[in-house]
Amino acid sequence: MNDNSGISHLAALSLRVRHAILACSTRAGSGHPTSSLSAVELMTALMFGGFFNYDPLRPDYAGNDRLIFSKGHASPLFYSLWHMAGQIDEAELMTFREFGSRLEGHPTPALPFTEAATGSLGQGLSIGLGMALNARRLDKLPCRSFVLLGDSEMAEGSVWEAMEIAAHYKLDNLVGILDVNRLGQRGETLHGHDIAAWARKAEAFGWRAIPVEDGHDLRQVLAAYEQALNLGVSGAASGKPVMIVARTIKGKGVAAIEDKPDWHGKPLPTEAYKMALELLGEADPHVRGELAPPPQIQIARSEPTPVPDIAYAPDKPVATRKAYGKALARLAPAFPDMVALDGEVSNSTYAELFAKAHPQRFFEMYVAEQNMVGAAVGLAGRGKIPFVSSFAAFLTRAADQIRMARYSEANLKLCGSHAGISIGQDGASQMGLEDLALFRAVLDCVVLYPADAVSCERLVEAMARHEGMAYLRTTRMATPILYGPDENFPLGGCKILRRSDRDVCTIVAAGITLHEALAAADLLAAESIPVRVIDLYSIKPVDAATLQVAARETGALVTVEDHYPEGGLGEAVLAALADAPVPVRLLAVRKLPRSGRPAELLDYAQISRKHIASNVKDMLS
Amino acid sequence: MNDNSGISHLAALSLRVRHAILACSTRAGSGHPTSSLSAVELMTALMFGGFFNYDPLRPDYAGNDRLIFSKGHASPLFYSLWHMAGQIDEAELMTFREFGSRLEGHPTPALPFTEAATGSLGQGLSIGLGMALNARRLDKLPCRSFVLLGDSEMAEGSVWEAMEIAAHYKLDNLVGILDVNRLGQRGETLHGHDIAAWARKAEAFGWRAIPVEDGHDLRQVLAAYEQALNLGVSGAASGKPVMIVARTIKGKGVAAIEDKPDWHGKPLPTEAYKMALELLGEADPHVRGELAPPPQIQIARSEPTPVPDIAYAPDKPVATRKAYGKALARLAPAFPDMVALDGEVSNSTYAELFAKAHPQRFFEMYVAEQNMVGAAVGLAGRGKIPFVSSFAAFLTRAADQIRMARYSEANLKLCGSHAGISIGQDGASQMGLEDLALFRAVLDCVVLYPADAVSCERLVEAMARHEGMAYLRTTRMATPILYGPDENFPLGGCKILRRSDRDVCTIVAAGITLHEALAAADLLAAESIPVRVIDLYSIKPVDAATLQVAARETGALVTVEDHYPEGGLGEAVLAALADAPVPVRLLAVRKLPRSGRPAELLDYAQISRKHIASNVKDMLS
Q1: What's the pLDDT score for residue A299?
Q2: Tens digit of each residue's pLDDT (9 = 90 or more) over A603-621
Q3: A142 plus A10 within the same structural domain
Q4: pLDDT at position A60
Q5: CB atoms near residue B164 (< 10 Å)
Q6: Cα separation of A105 and B621, whole Å?
Q7: Domain residue limits at A388
Q8: pLDDT recorded at residue B478
Q9: Name one Pfam family in it (chains A, B) (predicted).
């Protein structure tokens, strides 16, 4: 391709791509043409220069290479490239950013060529890493992940998490293309046009950096890809991911706005657009881009085995975090696509039980939660069922990646351990007290909070079967077994553990506080105050019907959670009863958490059995 | 100090520190002695080798250097050092991790020598950066920030955000001390004992790296500090922050557990503790650590001026995001401690209005939200009132730093712009739809959501006056002016905008949806259905009294928010009414957000005027 005819073909394609970028963004009246124009040659050469192996009729084909626009705002370029590939016709291209169009402001899975939703900067490299990890370690594929990065987003720490973990896993099938167009949204980036600065950083992080002095010179760009791709397969220099670092011009091709600040995220007005077209010159409407066909591949898959039974001695307390690890290890043969990732705390989350049983399906992601979640999104994109674990408190580190995972429609499972003030001496920094709020506020995300090992095991299985995002909250300390081995725990269900026709109140709890609630019910029973107790193990979806019956029959509720009051179990119950409400007392952590023994802290936070009992009595009086 | 008597004094101190670490952690039965032991010489030499200028009787004195334990789990070391400095007596040291003790599991401001709460890894360098920025750029102090880092936490991207921004601001008064003890919680870190790998990364990020081959050799350690501190002030090599990269042994001094995995976060059992004491040898109980006295300093402070009036044409819509920027610029002379930070979107959040008016008090923090929030915590720790802005969606990137800021008792103000589906064409990735849940779940954090420019200006002022964390949510599009220039907006208040004695329902809204609510009230009025309309500009604290009166008087509520239903305005209202509830209908974004025009999207999400009106009617029927 690096001959004259190849170059002139790519040049003609690049010109058409520029036309398309300007046309769709001017038509939309918004979007990021200048950020698109800087990467035209970089992406045209990649896709149509013979480097990118992809069957556009089978976007999900496992043998395809993967392309992720981490700088998702360059969506006009992304769509224009697929237009050139014959997959988006001109009429559709002109629907860019319209309501109902597959061509959203930033790429989403509405378009099947989008590997993952982007638009929050600095996330794409982790997703590409996850896909490269899948190709190299799991499905054993010759495929590559290509990730287009902007220089602004290199300020995001998540990028450097991905840089170090990709090097650690020797992912030479991961290729970053850094579009150094110098300008961010409001001015110059950290290193301006100094591509050597970015190359130095990449190399210090264990990558092979390939500088491109002029990212608009197709010869240089093609040479860089040839260098990058040979490196990946030949002997001497392999084992390192590759970063192509290209100096480019923002707005390239439209002289009036080239390399100018104040043109970020602004389409050309119609008049300027017409002038730009004239200066660009006419594009050959017959030129077409062709993608290289992907290789025939074969993936060795093990057949799923039946799910083994679970067995817990009914009188021996077990921590739900341990049950999580046991469940993963037990379920792995039944779910061949299940993998696990952990943020250097697998001996606390008990993901290590899976790691020991199935080491080839476990990935140590070190203390880098953002990249861990991003990589899991990449793995999910390739059909795996990733279970991601850390302390619940530290999953907040990846809140933005979790938010975006939903828009990628990722089949992602997360487990947060060490929830609540009841973890004890380690203190506030280690206590997950806002995780229910975080995960409840993710559209459709299932939120689970088991109180014993049996329900935890069942819920892990339900998570694996469920298509979509799900979060499991686990507890540090051992808790008594409440359920027999054959009990079912459907998503969206709950369990009524105490019930009589004379119940004067319902206590709703989950996890650690359920045991306090049961003890409170005993205290109240001793005073002849019968109460209902509900195990709300499924916080979202919530069993509104059962809660409504309890509300109607008992007339009052007390909710108890080891979480801040906002966005947690109590508010989930209130929302479920909003149509036909009864008085509800929300017990939750309302004081500054601190170090102490678990029982001391439950008491301090006023969510212990005695506080539950006294609140029930107070409500009745 | 680098003579023989100095060395032997520091060696004797180090031995006492080791004794104290083992004693307090064994006594507590939990904690991280091995992670403490590796940094004993590094920290003893710093604090008592003449490098750390600090008056322990005036922890808040502006002329003090600052020391942050980013590896907060080394709290036994932290407390033992202050024990050696005569600030914690032996009896108190033995309360480590007990309920009520100032010596929590991880350092918190309960102890006045703690600059910021740590324990979630990778956050300390940003805090030190904020304090160094204050010393260099604002208060013009000769003080340094020292930050002790663990090698595990170097995997956190937030550390690399701080690395690049510290270099950008040429903070040679920032000194990192990297304790490369090779072992993380569950095994070897990314680079093991390869201190050259860490040094390479630091240098590529623009830092001066000083390797220390043996971090337990006091001569080497002292030499490193001398080199680090001279560099900071002399000509040639200054302008770069410094990272001391020291190879150390986890558990150093207790042979049985030195450099051993499986000893993370575990105290010595009593028997092993006694054996360890014997092997360590007796410590001289009379040896004392002395801190170097800080310099006399003078801070030039401008006197606050009176707050100028605000003026908006009543008939000209203005975006609340713009009012935010205008308020900052207007209020700056009245609040000399106010500073602003923005994540490379100041032309969208309108923080640029402050930046232009008061450039010396504005800090461009680039697309690195975690470090931005961490640096703001550092600035707040030094008495500044930092206002931090980005898109609401992208503040989620710093959720863990926001969570921890509360435990640092930071006087931190945050503004999230571009809230809600109503931003339009940019699509889901740019839409803040979970920010209310995030900030409501921060203990005591004020959460504000103005609907017009006047209330926004007033609320920014209220935030500046309020001691503690506060969040402001702003809207992309211009909205009509609702209030006169003299209207008051107390925190915890609300405004009743429509009211009659015959109201049959109350619509509660804020921000963009308040305007839809008012339009819905007009539609309903035309059908002779009188409704009350409340502007719930203060979502937390919430005006429960007014909501309860409205509930009692109108018997039903409809809440409307441009946010997911979980953890937002609607649930805040439900919680306020939990004692004496009435039926409430929660309108919120319950569908997958997408690109489109703002009005189309409000309609699609069923939070527009017509949906509000029809829901009111549906509730009444």
Answers
A1: 87
A2: 999 999 999 999 999 999 8
A3: yes
A4: 95
A5: 24
A6: 40
A7: 320-473
A8: 98
A9: Transketolase_C
Query: CB–CB of B566 and A430 under 8 A?
Result: no
**For position A2, what pLDDT does the model report?**
57
What pLDDT is stored for residue A235 in this prediction?
46
**C-beta atoms of A397 and B120 within 8 A:** yes
Provide the domain count of chain B. 3
Statement: residue A236 has pLDDT above 50:
no
Of A368, A564, A583, the CB nearest to B580: A583
pLDDT at position B302: 87
- Is B488 within a domain? no
Average pLDDT, chain A: 96
Among B118, B156, B164, whose Cβ lies nearest the Cβ of A190? B164
Question: Which of these three, A411, A438, A473, is where a domain ends?
Answer: A473
Residue among A343, A382, A384 at smallest CA distance from A361? A384
SS3 label, residue A178: strand
Q: Does A76 touch chain B (CB under 8 A)?
A: no
Predicted confidence (pLDDT) at residue A249 exceeds the cutoff of 50: yes
Determine the Cα–Cα distance for residues A192 and A283; give it in Å rounded to an integer: 32
Whether A73 and A154 share a structural domain? yes
The owner of tokens 């499991």 is: A472
CATH code of the domain covering residue B447: 3.40.50.970
| Residue numbers of A between 137 and 156 with CB closer than 8 Å to B | 152-153, 155-156
Dist CA B157 CA A161 (whole Å): 5
Output helix, strand, coil percentages for chain B, rounded to the nearest 5: 40, 15, 45
Q: Is the domain of A384 the same as that of A257?
A: no
* Per-residue model confidence (pLDDT) at position B348: 97
Q: Residues A531, A537, A541, A547: what is their CA dihedral angle, to the nearest 10 degrees?
A: -10
pLDDT at A232 (0 to 100): 47
Residues B500, B452, single domain; the answer is no
- A128 and A228 part of one domain: yes
Shortest CB distance from A578 goes to which of B110, B442, B583? B583
Classify residue A488: in a domain, yes or no. Answer: no
Would B289 be classed as within a structural domain? no
Looking at B225, B256, B280, which one is the last position of a domain?
Answer: B280
Within-domain flag for A332: yes
Of A369, A409, A461, A516, the catalytic one is A369
> What is the distance between the alpha carbons of residues B169 and B122, in angstroms, rounded to a whole number?
20
The residue written with tokens 């679970």 in the block is A310
Q: Are the beta carbons of B366 and A190 separated by less than 8 Å?
A: yes
SS3 B340: strand
| Regions of chain B short of the pLDDT cut 70 | 1-2, 231-237
Q: Are strands A506-509 and A478-479 parallel, antiparallel or unpaired?
A: unpaired
∠ CA A27-A32-A38 to the nearest 5 degrees? 120
Does the distance separating the beta carbons of A159 and B157 come in below 8 Å? Answer: yes
Check: CB of residue A609 under 8 Å from CB of residue A523.
yes
Pair A217, A360 in one domain: no
Q: Is B132 within 8 Å of B174 (Cβ atoms)?
A: yes
B33 lies in the same domain as B91: yes
B596 neighbourhood in chain A, CB within 8 Å: 98-100
Q: Are B104 and B114 in contact (CB under 8 A)?
A: no
A124-167 pLDDT tens trace: 999 999 999 999 999 999 999 999 999 999 999 999 999 999 99
Distances (CA, A) of A264 to A22, A37, A181, B344: 14, 11, 11, 12
Q: What is the CATH number of the domain that holds B566?
A: 3.40.50.920
Q: Does A121 touch chain B (CB under 8 A)?
A: yes
**Helix axis angle, A195-204 to B195-204, nearest 10°:** 160
* pLDDT reading at A231 higher than 60: no
Total residue count of chain A as it appears in this document:
621
Helix, strand, coil percentages for chain A (3-state, nearest 5): 40, 15, 45
For the segment A473-525, what is each residue's pLDDT rounded down to a tens digit? 999 999 999 999 999 999 999 999 999 999 999 999 999 999 999 999 999 99
